[in-house]
Amino acid sequence: MSKRTKVRFIINPTSGPKSRVDVTARIQQHLNHQKFEYELVYTEYAGHAPKLAREAANAGVEVVVAVGGDGTVNEVARGLLNTDTALAILPKGSGNGLARHLKVPMNIDGALRVLNQENITTIDSGEINGLPFFTTAGIGFDAYISSVFAGNQKRGLQTYVELVMKEVRNYTHLPVKASINGNSLETDCYVMAFANAAQYGNNAYIAPLADIRDGLLDVCLVRRMDLVKALDISYCMLTKQLANASSAEYFKTAEQVTVETEEEMMFHVDGDYMGKARKFEVRMRPLSLRVLVP
Ligand SMILES: Nc1ncnc2c1ncn2[C@@H]1O[C@H](COP(=O)(O)OP(=O)(O)OP(=O)(O)O)[C@@H](O)[C@H]1O
User: Which top-rank group of organisms is this from (predicted)?
Assistant: First the structure.
């Protein structure tokens, strides 16, 4: 028998809805065992997955599978950056932005079929204040929502939408100084989203023009918010029209974006709240991660 590909599944037991499919049984049933030899490891705490992924890469494991949502994908992918080991995704979160962008099926069996095909491409990643992101990062309202969502007992899309509807009136813009494509900009900022992939997850397209292999950062700025704009932006996100919407401004850049604020602003990385800062430096790392795609 020819040499089998080594695969490590890194499973976040806390991610996704409570009623979950038995992932290990599905792997046993649907993985092509003639092609792959595999092991399963479980994360024991937040921040464990990068170590588990890097350890696998150093040991010559060819594919590491993130079993979880975008937070888990971020942690696993971080550990694999600039290595020969490829990332695969078994989506188990509520948003699954990177998996959706890459057209990985949302069901475990379909995602395992993608794994079995072993079709690999290389994608960009982004970095905000030195922290890697693969889907989106952002400052302002979306980070505020991720901070509130993190403390919420209930998860899922409905909870998320309810939270956004409630908090959109409570959150207010802050003045920022930004440098984008060599232009200085003094503006109010309700939200500034930095995108590698086109969507936040759940088919909410914050950056419909994003190409994950073009080396470019897509930036979406909403200066101020009111109810009419909130409805327009929601509609445009769901219909992939945000790049042309009057309520938002959209840029693509190959250069570093710098944003400075007097007052600390919250930021997130792939939907996980990261804290506050007064200065943000955002850049791309072109073609820095190998991934399995359909
Ligand atoms: N064993 C663990 N215990 C507690 N937290 C963990 C553990 N393993 C990973 N985490 C943390 O859980 C966070 C959320 O995981 P993930 O995004 O995969 O699931 P989710 O929040 O259910 O999905 P979504 O983001 O799509 O809603 C990760 O960022 C990670 O830091």
Answer: Bacteria
